[in-house]
């Protein structure tokens, strides 16, 4: 067996569909939680430095979110093409796609690093940063920009690992990064023993160090465990062909990831016309919501590789059943979340703020919007499934419809007619409409293929395939 031959694979084309999805999703729940904890830790410790430093870090959020969206998009594109190649049984193609996805992310991040470092002052002045915060922004971004390589490349690498059907290792890597970041933040920000106090620079450095460890870990897993990386040149034409496939899914996915934060910014400005307390209440309820939706986010992260492998293997019935089970879970868990938050929202919000107006706004939100959490989960799953199938444009249309066509216009209309309740009802209605649309759209897409064989052909027990990537046929020309 050659050193570059993959030796391990978590086969998603066999076994119980429901149990496979459960086994994939549970580790991702903890992984998503770790990412949220990572970001909250940064905000908490920087907040101890003072309002100016926290404001400086807040100004960096749009740039960080854009780069995070780019990384997620590239990872989605890589996961989509790699999982389908695994399902098709093309070992050589799996290696080439994995390798070229990493080289593509390196190339793109290199360009963004150069542009970012050259435009720190004009960009953040355009965003409204004043002279009192600009020195802190420079301190932070001069470290964060070069460290982007440790954000983008590991995210693509972890997506490749998930494409092979392994969600445990990416979750462990994310958890490890969160632990390292939380441990380093107070040491580097405030100083300890022989380590000087670095202030906001320390926060950026802690993030970069934690992310760099994820890069090392993901490359080690991809090379030594999954055998999915080639260390030889694949040729410019072959490389370009792989890049086009990845970007065909990755660019639309990155665009859809950017739509939501931009739209939320518009909603926040609308809420600001009421009072600062309304914005604070919205912020608290959004944080509570991010924790409530972890299971949906984890499921959407795993459904892509599952449908990708099975679609590539032409097991269309398994794709149909995976979406059916996922939608049932979203509806059931969504109803449970709505009931729990309606009963406990007031107690939860008081953990963050006891101001009566803040409490009133947040409890209103958590009484109205969670009614639609089930269909919002369906929307997330459907978008991930379309990307996994290599059909990114339905996901783009669903996201645009939810945020631009429905949510923002309905929020302004609802604000005019019913005040805050109208804004929150707009979010609920948008989720309900797009969730139902997603069910219809995915059913129609799968129904075109569902009549074809949904299970592998019968074979003798002695001939049953193993779960090793080394058994995938080698299509390299002889």
Overview of the structural elements:
The chain contains 16 helices and no strands. With 478 residues, the protein is an all-alpha fold. It folds into 2 domains: 17-258, no CATH class; 273-456, no CATH class. The longest helix is centred in the N-terminal third of the chain and has 38 residues, at 51-88. Residues 1-9 and 450-478 have low confidence and may be disordered.
Describe the structure using short key phrases.
478 residues; mainly alpha; 2 domains; 16 helices; 78% helix; 0% strand; disordered N terminus; disordered C terminus
Short description:
With 478 residues, this protein is mostly helical. The chain has helices spanning 17-47, 51-88, 91-118, 120-126, 134-144, 149-163, 168-190, 200-225, 236-272, 276-292, 294-312, 316-350, 356-368, 373-388, 392-418, 420-447.
Question: What are the SSEs and their pairings?
Answer:
Blueprint: H1 17-47, H2 51-88, H3 91-118, H4 120-126, H5 134-144, H6 149-163, H7 168-190, H8 200-225, H9 236-272, H10 276-292, H11 294-312, H12 316-350, H13 356-368, H14 373-388, H15 392-418, H16 420-447
Helix pairs in contact: 1-7, 1-11, 2-3, 2-5, 2-6, 2-9, 2-11, 3-6, 3-9, 4-5, 5-8, 6-8, 7-8, 9-10, 9-15, 10-13, 11-12, 11-14, 12-13, 12-14, 12-16, 13-16, 14-15, 14-16, 15-16
Number of helices: 16
Please describe the biggest sheet, giving its number of strands, its sense, and whether it closes into a barrel. Answer: none
Give the C-alpha Rg. 23 Å
How much strand? under 5%
Helix content: over 70%
In the residues, how many domains can be counted?
A: 2
Low confidence ranges? 1-9, 450-478
What string, H for helix and E for strand, traces the elements in order?
Answer: HHHHHHHHHHHHHHHH
